[in-house]
Design goal:
single chain; 358 residues; alpha/beta; Rossmann fold; Jelly Rolls; 3 domains; six-stranded parallel sheet; 19 strands; 29% strand
């Protein structure tokens, strides 16, 4: 199938094209604002489908870009054959009196009167990766504003708005492309939140990210917000200074933590040093040897004899159950490093760490 995609470099266009490129049997003709209408006309002689995503969503001070949207759609009608199957993205706000809404509705009518097969997707607010902040996504604006400390305005802060995640929307488009049909689909937002609620959730995500806590949340909307937050990170913004605890035995470096999923740390043990000799009542742990060699000794608090095993193969994994005294000793002349997971995030006020009875 040969498909023309207008607005291929826009927010929705980038995400849809990225998905289409991984589908077999498709040839894409990608148009952006610089593509001559004559080129699109030549594509129309080969293509069977038009996905029309192009359109400005915010006007310019010096001219009416909403009228330009309508003008471009009329140009497509003038140069493309009627038999093309058309997908057009419009807005759920078609009944509101606004130039953007009025021109979108006019585009709908123009397409329906020309092409034989048209399906219109009316959308609520879309969010996700690659949206343009300070232009077509309030969530992208909040994220970049918070991340880069750029001033932004908060409008209608307590007015609920509906949002749909970009990957969920793309899935709807892919289903239609696989089995196209004429008609109208009103794609209502899966999530209804006020701008103030969204901003508060994003600030929680920001604090979790800065504190090196895992960005994993039971709420589906907040999890998608976290994914979107991470998509706006630049390499020079993604630097972290890991918290490191060091003494003569070695170092413990905190990597990540989350109340739901526990804590990951890197545990370095210097030559001829030991760590541990304690137990936990409710916490359990996992040790993964990365480098070097250590001897793991363990026993129960009500026993006196130790059992032991030598961890010397890389990625040797040992689980430490609750209620078991454990001690790691490095008898070698070089340091040893382990990746350590704890089922609980360490809390100094309630460490759940107990020395063995005398």
């Amino acid at each position: 199938m040969k498909i023309i995609v207008t607005g291929s470099t826009g927010f929705i266009g980038k995400n849809l094209v990225d998905a289409l490129r991984h589908k077999e049997g498709l040839e894409l003709f990608l148009a952006d604002s610089k593509t001559p209408i004559e080129t699109i006309a030549s594509w129309g002689k080969m293509a069977s489908m038009l996905i029309h995503l192009a359109g400005y969503s915010r006007t310019h001070e010096t001219h009416d870009v909403y009228q330009e949207n309508l003008t471009f759609t009329q140009q497509l009608i003038n140069v493309l054959p009627k038999h093309l199957t058309v997908l057009f993205t419009s807005t759920n706000a078609v009944t509101r009196h606004h130039r953007y809404v009025e021109t979108k509705y006019a585009e709908e009518q123009a397409l329906l009167h020309h092409f034989q097969h048209v399906h219109i997707f009316r959308l609520d607010n879309v969010f996700g990766k690659w949206a343009k902040p300070f232009y077509n996504s309030v969530i992208a604006t909040f994220i970049v504003g918070e991340m880069q400390q750029i001033p932004y305005s908060l409008f209608d802060e307590d007015q609920p708005k509906k949002f749909i995640y970009i990957d969920d929307l793309v899935e709807r488009f892919l289903m239609w492309i696989h089995q196209p049909k004429d008609g109208l689909t009103v794609v209502e937002g899966t999530y209804e939140k006020t701008p103030r609620e969204i901003l508060n959730l994003l600030r929680i995500i920001k604090d979790d990210w800065q504190s090196q806590r895992l960005l994993s949340y039971p709420d589906a909307f907040q999890q998608r917000l976290a994914i979107t937050w991470m998509s706006y990170l630049q390499p020079d913004h993604a630097k972290h200074t890991l918290v490191q605890h060091t003494d003569e035995r070695g170092s413990l470096i905190e990597v990540s933590k989350n109340p739901r999923f526990g804590q990951w740390s890197i545990n370095e043990i210097q030559p001829h040093q030991s760590k541990g000799n304690h137990y936990h009542r409710i916490r359990f742990e996992k040790f993964i040897l990365l480098t070097g060699q250590v001897t793991l000794k363990w026993r129960y608090p009500f026993e006196t004899s130790w059992q032991e095993i030598v961890m010397k193969e890389p990625y040797h994994v040992m689980d430490i159950p609750p209620g078991v005294i454990h001690q790691l000793t490095n008898d070698q002349t070089y340091s040893a490093t382990l990746l350590m997971w704890s089922s609980l995030v360490y809390d100094p006020s309630s460490p759940d760490t107990y020395l063995p009875p005398l």
